[in-house]
Amino acid sequence: MRELNYDNCKWITQIPNLSGLPNLQELSFRDCDNLITVDKSVGFLDKLKILNAQGCSKLTSFPPIMLTCLENLQLSYCSSLHRFPEILGEMENIRTLFLEHTPIKELPFSIYNLIQLEMLNISECGMVQLPSSIVMMPELKEVLIFGPPKQNQGDEKMNILVSSNECLYLSYYNISNEFLPMVLTCVANVTKLDLSYQKFTFLPPCITFLQSLRKLNLHKCDYLREIRGVPPNLETLSATCCRSLKDLDLTVTDLPANIYILNRLILDQCKNLQEIKGIMPNMELLSASNCTSLTNSCRRMLLNQELHKEAGNMAFCLPGSRIPGWFEHRRNGSSISFWFRNMFPAISLCCY
To answer: Measured between alpha carbons, how far is 188 from 152 in angstroms, rounded to an integer?
Structure first.
């Protein structure tokens, strides 16, 4: 037998001894509402490739596993499973691991045996303590921790050791002003950080210490009022729909003169944004549509030809209907025509 399916069996309470099925490749007992235990033999099925226990709401424990062929392990929505199983040896075929909507509070040190793991999703799990061994997982690039804490509002204990990872998603995690600096000290080598849907009111100056950070997403941080500096090597900053944002300071003091890194700035729908400081003349994308509260001096700065002429393939979107004076050719209608000789000219195009 190669496939065994117990899905939606409401009466089953235990997965029996399966050592007599050494060729089993797929085992699924998804949504078995009354399942409580799994026999330890399941953890030693050498040829098993798929193991699906999703939605077993009464499953309280899972035996240690040594499944060298396993490619897919699904334990999401096991709402009574408080511990992730020990991994007894190297398992090199699992690339993604989904544990969302489980009450798991701590991952075992042995998780580093998932040597090819690239993405770990522990969303909606509350506060999960990641082991120090996570830095021994060189292929792990993304850690997803979407969702607000399930503990008390004031309890913000979180251990994020992701120094070797590339991407960290912390959307909806309800990080406070006081706790945010602690989070930022734990992500020193992250290159992509998503802090969308948070409730902190300012981005602290210590974010400038994240020298590996290349992309920062702050979408719909409704209470964010200030951004007090950006990391020196940041290339993309997206802070769309931040309805309380008023001041944005992009000044970077640690870079040599004439070295500009940030080249993509997206601020759409920040309706209370008034001032943007520190924009450098190398922007490839500058979008501030519906930012209707920008001061006149800020608007003039954003429309200044000097800001755009060095950028090359520049795209920018700003509020209002006034066409900058340095646009030499204007035409109403759906098309535009012009003469050129030898080399196609660089174009700035304004459509409204």
So the answer is: 27
Binned at pLDDT 50, 70 and 90, residue 256 comes out as: low
Q: How many of the other CB atoms lie within 10 Å of CB of 253? A: 8
C-alpha 325, offset from chain centre: 40
CA distance 183 to 237: 19
Return the beta strands (E) in 171-225 as ranges. 192-194, 202-203, 215-217
Please list, residue by residue across 304-335, b when 16 or more beta carbons sit within 10 angstroms of its beta carbon and e when fewer do.
Answer: eeebbeebeebebbbbeeeeeeeeeeeeeeee
Kindly report, residue by residue over 102-139, the tens digit of the pLDDT: 988 888 899 999 999 988 888 777 656 677 777 678 78
| Distance from C-alpha of 304 to C-alpha of 309, rounded to nearest angstrom | 9
Name residue 26's beta-bridge partners: 3, 50
* Residues 93, 114: Cα–Cα separation, whole Å: 8
For residue 77, which phi and psi values (nearest 5 degrees)?
Answer: 65, 20
pLDDT in the model for residue 308:
60
Q: Calculate the CA 212 to chain-centre distance.
A: 15
The pair of structure tokens assigned to 73 is: 């392990």
Q: Which two tokens stand for residue 26?
A: 């797929």
What sign results for the dihedral spanned by CA atoms 262, 264, 270, 275?
positive
Residue where the block lists tokens 């509350």: 126
Cβ contacts of 247 within 8 Å, gap of 6 or more: 225, 226, 227, 274, 275, 277
CA distance 167 to 189: 9
